[in-house]
Amino acid sequence: MALEDLYREVILDHYRNPRNRGRLERPDASASGVNPLCGDELAIELALRDGVVSDVAIESQGCSISQSSASMMTEAIKGKSIEEIKALVSKFRKMMSLDEGEDAGFDPERPGAVLGDIEALQGVRQYPVRIKCAALAWNTMLEALQETA
Amino acid sequence: MNDLSHLKADFPVLENGVHFLDSASSSQKPIPVLEAMDRFARGSYANVHRGAYKLSVAATEAYEGARRRVAEFVGADDDREIVFTRGATTAINTVAFGWGLENLEEGDRILATEMEHHANLVPWQMVARRTGAVLDHVPITDECRLDMDAFEKKMGPDVKMVAVTGMSNVLGTIPDIAAISRIAHRHGARVLVDAAQRVPHLPVDVTEMGADFVAFSSHKMLGPTGIGVLWGRMEALEEMEPFEGGGEMISDVTLHTATWAGIPHRFEAGTPPIIEAVGLHAAIDYLDSIGMEKVFDHDKALTAIALERLGDVPGLAIQGPKDLEDRGGVISMDMKGIHAHDVATILDEEGVAVRAGHHCAKPLMRRLGVTATARASFYVYNTEADVDALVSGLRRAGELFGVR
Asked: What is the ipTM of this complex?
């Protein structure tokens, strides 16, 4: 597998210019996570309105995979209901081979159709030690959502 | 440079051409070590110190023979000063708990340094909490050397233990243990050296170093995992209680009491790593056949080449001493705009194995102002070609991420 498949331009763009950085004024839920193996750290804050994530902010440091995954995730969940987000998480986890299932989370015939930019992360599957990097933001976000349940 | 390139053929793992630059984590094993363990396990294995039958006598002789060999290798006065442990970490814990709980109390200070591996930090935190002693730290200078002026200022009669690395696993810095020991002893403190990076790479004479305890691991010096060494000056070992109880470490046991075996066996509870001791013996023979002076010269020669060629890589900064004085073959690198894990993944694709992360030294990383570095470390089987592969891999990483 070529390194260019792992470090796609969209990943490097989100790494260099992460979206939704910082903190929220009045978060309804928050959580922080670390990847003790490599030291990636991430704190997420969510604002919720009528069961919909109306805003999200992340403070984090780590590698391009963890940072770009977090950045793309913030764009993907903003404006989505908790149910929609859970479905997204399930697709993401299957794409990363974290969960087994028929629903691969993306359709190789139609790139970008199901998960959008996030599908750029599928190259990470070839690098098992890096899957945890990609999953950190998603796991931390789920933890924050559980707080509201 | 001493040409050691013929040694590479002794290391089966390297046959696939990997540029292995992570010996500071764990070293590869040469065929003579693998064969010695295999021969022993097939031909004369039994438990030790169970003496009634010939196999056990032979195994005991091999195990105690390894102890004598280690003693000779590090210049110990007495074989009994060599305690076999599970590794350097267990050796340090043996002292932290076995010596610390007996000899530390509220108001005492333990003095470590800012560049300790977690193995020489966390046990002291645990023992400080239990005894009420305070854990203090000697800073490093901006040149990544131990600040000896600060050390002298921090010393005092309340300092009972100085815990210091023999060589930093992140920076490659080699502190002057003889000077540290002299100053510490003037104040009545004991000195423990975490020599996990030192004994594999430098000639070590424990009596010359002057410390009271020296801990190291077999797996970083071409030997197997699962065995390490605690050398202790006899009078210091006598101040220690066993950290673990069990078989092999007793003299007599009743239902409620036990008396200890002699030193060192009282510190070796349970069945020891017997096959591993044979492997460590063979690893020492292998290193001695090269000569430890040559081993260190080889590391230094590769480090010199690497420091020079890495200087031309765009965006690359080296965390650690930039010259070769009192420095070993460990180079921590920080690349502008690329996280260390990405650097390591890209290098891996180029066939270069380096370690990325905090290297079990998070307080040091904070002091350096970085969260992670990519670390290359050299050993006897490395060659200039490995350095070149590292340099070209780093250039490739820079290109992929658009570093200029």
From this structure: 0.88
